[in-house]
Amino acid sequence: MLIKAWRHKNNIPSIELLTLKTKQYIVNKNWYKNSNKLIKKHFKEYNLFIDILSITSPRTSVKRNCTNAIETYNQVLNNQKLTVQYGLTHANTKRNIDLMLKSNKFKGQKVNSFSNALKLKDNNNIVIDTWMLKAFNLKRKSPLKNDIEHINTTVKTIAKKLNLKPYEVQACLWVYAKSELNNTTVKESYDFSYYLKAYFDQTKLNIGGTYEKSYR
Asked: Which of 21, 93, 99, 144 could form a disulfide with 86 if both were Cys (CB 3.0 to 4.6 A apart)?
């Protein structure tokens, strides 16, 4: 489906509105950079932590995602049985963590994109989750092939116009959706650095250790 037909069929907001919202929430453009900085500060095996953080992210708040990931990371480093409960996605999340620990790979377009974004591996990387679908007025739980293609095209167009990186535009639109299109009880839009700072300030802990296996 061509992008014009996709926009019309799904009543996608105009690129002018999405550009305006990106500019309105521009202070959040460093969502991934801020998160990356604090993760590297506190976690020696930061790639491992980022992958765990990404795998445990579906259908959970940023705060809960952060605490679940810290607990999982600790248990992995200490070769303990995983006892963390991952909520609505527990079974799938647990299987994905087991797969990651065995093969250094895991399933899911969203969680893999999220991992790459948090590692700052690809400036063109765009995470498409339920909040990005809301930003584009797409009323479904997961993106279709056309959604992924055309959201990527739209975000890159806005990035070029505003001289931003695509993942910076995506971060701004994510915060827009969390702030203005949010009918849940969880209204947070902070990045991981906010919760990591709060966690380590409160606990006075600095998680160390080295993962036994080679890790990407």
From this structure: 93
Q: What total of structural domains would you count in the chain?
A: 1
Domain of residue 43: give its range.
3-203
Would residue 11 count as lying in a domain? Answer: yes
210 is a domain residue: no
Residue 136 lies in a domain: yes
Tell me the C-alpha distance between 113 and 176, whole Å.
20
Structural Rg of the chain based on CA atoms: 18
What's this model's pTM, rounded to 2 decimal places? 0.88
Half-sphere exposure of 11 (CA within 13 A, CB side): 4
pLDDT digits (tens, 9 = 90+) for 79-130: 999 999 998 899 999 999 999 999 999 999 999 999 999 999 887 889 999 9
The closest of 146, 86, 78 to 111, measured between CA atoms, is 86
